[in-house]
Amino acid sequence: MISKEQFDKEIELIIANAIREDVGDGDHSSLACIPDSAKGKAKLLVKDEGIIAGIEFAKQVFAYVDENMKVDTLIEDGSKVKYGDIAFYVEGASQSILKAERLVLNAMQRMSAIATKTKVFVDLLEGTDTQILDTRKTTPGIRALEKWAVKIGGGTNHRFALYDMIMLKDNHIDFSGGVAKAINKTKAYLKETNRDLKIIVEARNLQEIQEILDCGGVYRILIDNFNYEDTRKAVALIGDKCLTESSGGINEKTVRHYADCGVDYISSGALTHSVYNMDLSLKAV
């Protein structure tokens, strides 16, 4: 996984690029009708229900736009919210509040939706030892925000990107000439380049799982698109030789059944690619 320093840098880049994209050479709507000296106050109003996420990110946005803005937080990230709740108040230059408004809302609406969906999966897994993982099926440019939201919702982050963990999937295996060749080439590459990266290998059937185990040195086996019966067989075959992960179209109706098969992790792209934004507003008070 990436370090905190790397993650913080990603957040800084997201904010800078989003403000560049949205503000350009100036918020001319505000500049045209609001004096530089005008002060204002606004509230973040919840118009939905679920798990709130992105409050700490909003603070960073306000600070980036204008370090003199003050935020009074009433509700923390990860809290359950309902219609009518006020998450925070922000106070400062009216122009600055308006400049930050859309980025704050866009981010918080999506992050809250992801956190809410993640919490549904987490609750469905309660009582098992299985953790829910996100994937790289994220919105380009804001992956750090979406993975942050998964953690706020109680989920666990998978690898951040292609560079912080090795995952040998079906195409890697086929292009390499088979499971054993892919794994052995990977081990040689890591040794040659002096890299310490964990290896995950996708298995499409029980025979490939045995091939992976025979090679050894794998951190986790991805049991992809298996039915329940074969998943249980795979878990029994793997035992404590490495960790296990189920994936492949797993949803709210099936996630508990896969957890009951004994896997350590379940990954779901739906946490980030299939959500409906939470309805939030930033209103002047």
TrEMBL record:
Bilayer-crossing residues are none
Superkingdom, natural source? Bacteria
Pathway(s) annotated for this protein in UniProt: Cofactor biosynthesis; NAD(+) biosynthesis; nicotinate D-ribonucleotide from quinolinate: step 1/1
Say yes or no: keyword Oxidoreductase present: no
Name the keywords, alphabetized: Glycosyltransferase, Pyridine nucleotide biosynthesis, Transferase
Domain Quinolinate phosphoribosyl transferase N-terminal, chain residue ranges per copy: 28-112
Q: Which InterPro entries match?
A: Aldolase_TIM (IPR013785), NadC (IPR004393), NadC/ModD (IPR027277), Nicotinate_pribotase-like_C (IPR036068), Quinolinate_PRibosylTase_N_sf (IPR037128), Quinolinate_PRibosylTrfase_C (IPR002638), Quinolinate_PRibosylTrfase_N (IPR022412)
Q: Which parts of the sequence belong to the Quinolinate phosphoribosyl transferase C-terminal domain?
A: 114-283
SUPFAM superfamilies in the record, alphabetically? Nicotinate/Quinolinate PRTase C-terminal domain-like, Nicotinate/Quinolinate PRTase N-terminal domain-like
- Which EC numbers does the record give? 2.4.2.19
Pfam families with a match to the protein in the record: QRPTase_C (PF01729), QRPTase_N (PF02749)
Similarity remark = Belongs to the NadC/ModD family.
Function statement:
Involved in the catabolism of quinolinic acid (QA).
Stated name of the protein: nicotinate-nucleotide diphosphorylase (carboxylating)
Source organism of this protein record: Winogradskyella haliclonae
**Lineage of the organism:** Bacteria, Pseudomonadati, Bacteroidota, Flavobacteriia, Flavobacteriales
Gene of origin?
A: nadC
